[in-house]
Amino acid sequence: MLPVMFTAVMKMVEVYELKKYFAVRRTGQWSAKSVLKAVDNVSFTVRMGETLGIVGESGSGKSTLVRCLTRLIEPTSGKVVLDGEEITKYRKRDLRKISKNVQMVFQDPVSSLNPRMNVLSIISEPLSAHEKISKTERKSLVVDLLKEVGLNEEHMYKYPGELSGGQCQRVAIARALSIKPKILVLDEPTASLDVSVQAQVLELLEKLQREHSLTYLFVSHDIAVVRSISHKAMVMYLGKVMEIGPTEKVVNEPLHPYTKVLMKSVPIPDPDSVLTEPAIQGEPPSALNPPSGCPFRTRCPNAVDECSLADMTLKKVEEDRYSACILNQRRSDS
Amino acid sequence: MSEELVRFEDYSLDFMTLYGRIKALKNVSFQIRKNEVFSLVGETGCGKTVTSLALLGLLPSNARSRGKIFFEQEQLTAQNVEQKRGRDIAVVFQDPMTSLNPLYTVRQQLADVLIARRRVPKKEALRSVVDILREVQMLDANRVADLYPHELSGGMKQRVMIAMALSCRPKLLIADEPTTALDVTIQKQILWLMKSLREKHGFSILFITHDMGVVAEFAHRVGVMYAGSIVEIATKRRLFKNPLHPYTVGLLNAVPNSRVGGKLKAIPGSVPSLVNPPTGCRFNERCERAFKKCFREIPPLIEVEDQHYVACHVYGGDENG
């Protein structure tokens, strides 16, 4: 686990009651629209230099959430404040002024780089979009960035097709860093990489965070990866936040029944681990028609009648730990 | 337990391409015993899937192979593998969406297998589909039987694939990354299903994966592959407790562990090109312990301790050679 090198008090990311509803047609072109609540009432804050790991299974809304933060997807309602600037207030065309502070790295490094641009132009594109710089300056900046992400000058004139997946992801990271952002949004940055390369990229991300005191939002479905890189973890299920807390605690002593099930399902690379019976059967309900109250109640081993009425607001259960489960909240009240 | 089902003997495989000869497999030898889960682990492009395709006789026409593969002591040839595929050897692939035919319902596709492979009359085959689905613990099997693949979730599709593979009572099930596309909670259900079916019917599984966590929970014995060669074979326990090959050690250090945490250690460099693999050991350029001999000679797979094989010069005689 990373030590936070300075007193991290400044809030870099603040999200208040963020919602993103999509109108979708269930079947054909003419059928009635229904509402898919991809992100429903999500609030959290991340401090400077901290990493928030966002975990959840496919369809839990984690990618939609981080795309709303950068306004790649327009949120339906809610407030997002990045580095003191309320970005949900801005008009779309004014966004460029503030987008300097936040950059994204996507899952598939090969398809997120333009195959017709060489590494030099890929990395310097954000630079030239934001400020006027001379050709020589541009080149020297790119060389510096390449070195920083563990590549070198000879990669400058290569095209994405000539690079391996790991190298492409390094280029994507260099591109994101080129305009010196304060926040980096990483959407499954290592999911398509092999483990040995994944470890290299995670190492690089940790180094960059230390050197530039970057704030990371790290989306992943892999709890082990989140455990190795993030300070705080947020667990999502069907668009709602189930639990937030220090990663160590969330992984080792999960509060929410869903987090418990999730942690029990993760295979542990240890010779003594044995396959046990799955804690839950079946699959998550449809996001188009989620259960009322707590979305997990239909599969929850501890569900009680009141769960169907739960309002799913996060409440503090222990020091620094928040859970949306009414049973956790009740226990801490008494 | 110790009776042999499959044996690869010095099997090498090249692909003839426009870019040259891709040396996909190099002197691969291992065996799969009856009733065991043998796992092949390794990174992208190390030859795991090609090994399983060789066993199934499904190699493309530009493949050139040397060496032998035995199934129940009988050497596999192009002719007899045709008879075994789908009957004695069944397979479940990684992506269930592309392995099922989108134009037919689950019932039709499953019945097809029974009609073609077991010569079951059509009416009976269509009727028995629901029972087969129940066998793989499909919830709501009656309804699912008449759905099309796109109406099923990933986990359900994979259950259908398993049902299809096991409907002919194979002796060997090849599972090629069967849970990679699934969420962890669903992965657990599928692994549990395969485990209970294996215990009930008694078949062997060749389990191909890159996930060390799944290996730890599921496999009996493990073969570690790197750039087309098997570098180490051991029982699961021994491999995790006492990995010998430097690549295995590196791989285990690079795997994040959600329970223990701690720092990851990456393996420097990247996998070599298989068109021009390095001479000698294919791991030599990334290996901390490499010495002269590693750049000259290919290390043979030798038994270092009981049932623990490793292909590394560090464990084979003098280090100063």
What does this structure look like?
The complex is a heterodimer of chains A (334) and B (321). By secondary structure, chain A is α/β, with parallel strands linked by helices. Chain A has a domain of 228 residues: 3-Layer(aba) Sandwich (Rossmann fold), CATH 3.40.50. Chain A is built from 10 helices and 12 strands. In chain A, the strands form 2 sheets. An 8-stranded mixed sheet of chain A has the order 6-7-8-3-9-10-12-11, sandwiched between helices. Chain A has a 4-stranded antiparallel sheet with strand order 2-1-4-5. In chain A, helix 3 packs across helix 4, helix 3 packs parallel to helix 5 and helix 4 packs across helix 5. Chain B is an alpha/beta fold. In chain B, strands 6-7-8-3-9-10-12-11 form an 8-stranded mixed sheet, sandwiched between helices. A 4-stranded antiparallel sheet of chain B has the order 2-1-4-5, with helices on one face. In chain B, strand 7, helix 8 and strand 8 form a beta-alpha-beta unit. The relative contact order of chain B is 0.14. The mean pLDDT of chain B is 91. The interface between A and B is large, with 47 and 51 residues.
Taking pLDDT < 50 over at least 5 consecutive residues as the criterion, the unreliable ranges of chain A are 1-8
Proportion of beta-strand residues of chain B:
15-25%
CATH architecture designation of the domain at 11-238 in chain A: 3-Layer(aba) Sandwich
Largest sheet of chain A: 8 strands, mixed
Strand content of chain A: 15-25%
- In N-to-C order, the SSE pattern of chain B is EEEHEEHEHHHHHEHEHEEHHEE
Mean pLDDT of chain A: 90
Q: Mean pLDDT of chain B, nearest integer?
A: 91
Distance between the termini of chain A: 33 Å
Give, in spatial order, the strands making up the sheet with the most strands of chain B: 6-7-8-3-9-10-12-11
Helical proportion of chain A, percent range: 25-40%
Helix content of chain B: 25-40%
| Tally of alpha and pi helices of chain B | 11
Considering residues with a beta carbon less than 8 A from a beta carbon on another chain, report the largest interface and each chain's count: A-B, 47 and 51 residues
